[in-house]
Structure of DNA repair protein RadA:
Amino acid sequence: MAKAHSQYVCQQCGYSQVGWAGKCPNCNSWGSLVETLMATGEGRKGKTKGQKKAEPISLTAIPFKRTSRLSTKISELDRVLGGGLVPGQVVLIAGEPGIGKSTILLQLADKIGKTLYVSGEESAVQVKVRADRLGIKSKTLKFLEETDVDTIVDSFDGPSLVVIDSIQTMTTDDLSGLAGSVGQVRECAFRLLKRAKEGNIPLFMVGHVTKEGTVAGPAVLAHIVDTVLWFEGDKSLTLRLLRAVKNRFGPTDEVGIFEMEDRGLLPLTNAEKIFLTKARAEVPGSVVSSILQGTRPLLVEIQSLVVPTKMAFPKRVAQGVDARRLEMLLAVLIRRCGLPLYEYDVFVNVAGGIKVVEPAADLAIILSIASSFFDKPVAKNIMALGEVGLLGEVREVVAEEKRVKEAKRLGFTHPVTQKEIKYVKEVVKKLLR
């Protein structure tokens, strides 16, 4: 059997050397030398006599096999994964510190049953404190406080699920680099993935993020796993969004919505209770719109406040809305509708802490600003939906019928879309003047 030793290999030109240096002596690239395991011994000499030769087969000759799935018993997590976990599926879950990664994985471990929870960051006592707070008392949940990946791989004794928290703390003695280095993260991830595939064991790995908001470590980490999940949300609010950035066994356009409470992360099947004010009154500056989160339409409340400015340059403050988009919509109101907003400070907020990134809420933003300017409320059964162009025209948005249907189900019986209104000036005149 061939032995292995570590060498530093340049990721730019492939040059290898025994010791590490800041700059590759071959291509002069800084920081491109990564510690890598190199096999030694005799190379491959070709096929021996009688050994079967690999041959390609036709696509139509490949037999169809339906993928069996294991439900996580967390409805929103199942939605993001595409219906549940696949045997041998390796999932990387990333997000900012304190966003809820360890919490949801501890809840998942409790619901799955026979789980091996490996922690390289927290001690057993710290995890026990969190488990008591979440009300988890499972006797089939096994905890391992270890960072050596080879010891961890040997501890895979038929669990239904394995959780690694986190991959940046794992190391192998075959490499001399520190935990979290490119070589260590890559090699440890490969060994864990290989063991999970061999035993058909679903495996979750927690990944750190950089200050730029990307997964820490080599880019190959996101490539070798089957699924990459990303946690989003403001830690000062209770809302949490779980997005599938990559998924080999399901769609990448689904989003799971959770609410953080003392009992942990709770799935939200009726998310509108966060984004819509209870018993909404007809108040100037409040208009409801519909946005898509994955394939699911969500109703959100756009709130605006327009006040006379006392400064040479009026304020434009946006929370949950792109500031440049707001400036464009204000220009449309000034030019196409004749509103003198250059003399007023404008504040726009999306209730519930969610961010609106699609143009479908343009019409609602314009209506809420105009409503606040005229100090005249929009009827509470109205839902505004449409993209607004620079000419003041209202355009159709993606999945408009689906959004309107959901709005009517929740009591918004009068949707305002491009089917009823062609230009912004018409809707402002019709509803507010």
Q: What stands out?
A: The chain has three domains: 1-40, 75-269, 273-432. The chain has a mean pLDDT of 88. The two ends are 85 Å apart (CA to CA). The chain is about 25% helix and 25% strand.
